[in-house]
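Standup notes
- DV: blocked on the single-chain target, sequence here:
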Amino acid sequence: MKKALGSPVILCLLGLFISFNLFTIFSGGDYKAELKIVNQIVEEYGLTFDDSILNTMQEHVNEDVRQFDSSYQDADAFLKSMTPEKYSMASKEDQQVIDRIGLMQMYIGLGKSLDERYAELDAGQMRDSMVKGLGLSGITQKVVTAEYEKLDTRLEEMKANAEYKQWFFAGDYRMHTELFRSLLKNTALEGVMLVVLLTALIANYEFENRSQLVAYTTKRGRKLIWNKLAASLLSTLLLIIPLFGISLLAYFHFYDYSGLWHALISSGLNWEYKFPYITRWPIEFHHYVWMAIAILSFILMIVSLLTFALSVFIKNSYLTWIIMILLLVSMFVIPSFFAGIPLVLILMNFNLTLLLVNPHMYFSGVSSLTMFEHYEIITLTTWFAAGVICSILSMRRFYRKDIV
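- DV (later): unblocked, structure below
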């Protein structure tokens, strides 16, 4: 394990991946300064809002406008009159005031529009669109319909509780996508490449260094294979810590989430695309982050198990790496070939790669074929069992085969 973790290839790749993540984080964020307004809003008005709070905010913004320019009585009129030329002629301090007024007015407008936007949401239309698009019928249609009934119940619960009325970064900034679909997904993919190579190096170390006849003829002999499996899993955990840890620490240092740790992922302000995030139960942002990390880490552990099983058969680290990566890529591609067989298509989507590349849609009811209740648990349990079985079968074969 020590030799594998200390391998120049592993260390260089780890350093390269972390550097790439840091570069991606720090080279973005042209709107970083604008995001700070949300924390100021939360600090002054609280995390949850209603019509009363929005009206109070509007009064305060209008008062700021009157203090800044007495010829205007409200923010809308002031902002409509603010041309690019007029803005460029203002001093830097005045521009900051204008920017703050504009951002406050934007968030007030977004908050006031949420009731209407959520009232228009209809789970039945989502269901009909999916059924028609995939040509579902029979048992598959019944299964999908049952899931959308659960989604409809959850959506009505959110509307009744006004769960979506919590402050978060405006959806136009795509901060949920930036963190989970970009950073966490990319970091997990980097982890896959490292874990596959690391596991293969541990499993095949003796064979690649021509020392298998010495190592496997000792008192412990072939039982060393169990130590190698344990070392592979432990090394995977040790590799995950700096890869995820440094990347996330840098991200949260660069972007200020200080007021939003307890905000719900289902906040209406977090509405980025056609549909909002409708989680299967209320999930606070910091809980979602930890659960996403836990799922991705468990996936990497399963990848290590599968790689170990494959390594025992192939006995070549780099060939194992190529085959395992191709296998994971195929899990993402193959389901599309079964679009004409809905039942197979649904079953094929319970795969590791699809779960790996969609951390932004975990526990969400609007994520197409991954919208099934307990999708994450079913996928992880199934593939963990497959990894354990493959590892046991490979080691049984290792006990029987020649070690040359």
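- Follow-up: The chain has a mean pLDDT of 86.
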